[in-house]
Amino acid sequence: MSNSDRTGRGRRRARPDAPNRAPRESDEAGGVRDSGSDAETGAQRGAGAPGRGRRTGASQARRGGRPGAPVDPVSKFSASALRRVSVLGDRPAQVVYGLAEQSTRAYGTKALAGLLALCVVALVALLSVLTYQLANATVAGTGTTGSSAIVAPPEGHSTLVPELYQSQPEDDAFEPIADRPDGAGPIPEDELFGSDTEELELDGQKLIRDQTETTDTCTSMVWGEAAAESLVEAECTSAASAVFLDSGEEYIAQFTLFDLSSQDSAGSVAEALDPGEPSTAPGFLLPQKDGVDGLHKDYSQATAQVMGHYLAVYWVARTDGAEPGDDDTLSTVNVAAMNASTWVYRQVGEAEQK
Predict the structure, then answer these.
(1) Residue ranges of the alpha helices (H) in the chain?
(2) Has residue 261 got a pLDDT over 50?
(3) Burial class (CB in 10 A: 0-12, 13-18, 19+), 244
(4) Is the residue at 102 inside a domain?
(5) Residue 100 maps to a domain
(6) Rounded to whole angstroms, how far apart are CA atoms 162 and 35?
(7) How far is C-alpha 241 from the geometric centre of its chain's CA atoms?
(8) How many domains does the structure of the chain reveal?
(9) Is 204 within a domain?
(10) Rounded to the nearest 5°, which phi and psi values hold at 100?
(11) Cα–Cα distances in Å, from 74 out to 30, 85, 257?
(12) Theoretical Cys-Cys bridge with 283: which of 154, 156, 227, 304, CB 3.0 to 4.6 Å?
C-alpha cells in the first residue's frame, strides 16, 4: 500500500473525529455565515482536506466576493435568475419571439381581411357604375339606326305649350304599320316632303311649305325632360319637321313626324306631350321658324295623331300670336296641315301589299 493511499484513508478516518463545525449565524439579510466561523471552518478544512479547500476558494472567487464578505440580496437574486436562464438556454427568447410572431400574424390577418372587404365593396361599386353607364349608352341609341341621346334645347328657347291640345284615338287603318320593321332606315326627307306637299289647301286656305328638316336626334325637336325621355323610351330613330305659311303670312303651321318603335310607344309620346296631363312635366315641341311670334308666344293649338309606329303633331297659330276669337280659320289651317303626312298613308298601302 502506497503512502498516498494511507494518507487518504487516514483523512477519511479522521473526518468523524474532526471538531464539530461551528454553527452558522444568521444575520438580518437572510442567514449568511459569520465571517469568523467561515474563517475557522476554512482553516480546518484546509488542514484536513487540501483539495476541498482549493475548490472552496475558487467557488468564493467565482461568486465575486472576498472570503467571509456579506452577499448582497440583489446580487443573490440576480445570480439565481442567471442560473435559471442558463438552464433554459435560448428558450425564453424563442417564446418571446414566438408570441410576437403570433401577434403579428393575427394583426396581419385582420388587416388583410379588412383590405379584402374594402376591395370587394369598391369592385361592386365599380360594376354598378359600369352597368349604369352601359344601360344609358344602350338607351341613348346603341344598336339603333338613329341617336336617341337627349339633346339640351338651345339657350333662351321658347317654352310655349298649346292652349288647345287634342290627341286623336288610334285608328285601325294603321295596323299594318303598328310595329317598325327590323332594319328600317330613317325617314326619307325627299319622299316625305315631295312635290305633293309643297302646297296644302283646304276650303280656300292655302299653305305653302317654307322650310324642312330631318334629324336622327329626335330629342332636338322638343324641350322638357318628360318629352325627351318619352322619345328615348320609345326608341325614336328619326324625326322630320316642316313649316308652312299661308299666302298672306297670317297663319303658321308646323308639322312634325317621329319614327318610333311601335304604336303603343307612339301613344306614350303623345301623352307625354299633352300639357294637360298632370303626371308629366311641362314640355313640347320647339318652334322651327324664327322671326315670327306665332308658336313662340301667346296663343296656339295642336293635334297629335298616332299613325302606326309614327306620331304626327300638327301645331298651328296666327303669326302674331293673337287668339282666333270667333274666327274658325285657325281650325281650318290645322286640318289642312294634316295633309303633310300623305307619305305615311303610302307606307300603309305598301305594307298591306306585302
Answers:
(1) 3-14, 35-48, 50-62, 73-88, 91-139, 189-192, 225-233, 263-272, 329-337, 342-353
(2) yes
(3) buried
(4) no
(5) no
(6) 126
(7) 40
(8) 2
(9) yes
(10) -65, -40
(11) 12, 16, 106
(12) 227
What is the C-alpha separation between 66 and 58, in angstroms, rounded? 11
What pLDDT is attached to residue 40?
Answer: 45
Domain that holds residue 193: 164-353
| Residue 299 DSSP symbol | -
Tens of pLDDT along 131-171?
766 665 544 444 445 555 788 889 989 999 999 999 998 89
Q: Does residue 315 sit in the same domain as residue 180? A: yes
pLDDT at residue 225 in the model: 93
Q: What is each CA distance from 262 to 24, 138, 169, 266, 279, in whole angstroms?
A: 119, 18, 15, 6, 22
Cell numbers linked to 302:
295642336
For the cut 90, the answer to whether the pLDDT of residue 239 exceeds it is: yes
- Cα gap 161→298, rounded to integer Å: 9
Residue 174 to residue 222: CA distance in whole angstroms: 25
**The predicted structure's pLDDT at residue 79:** 58
Amino acid at 163: E
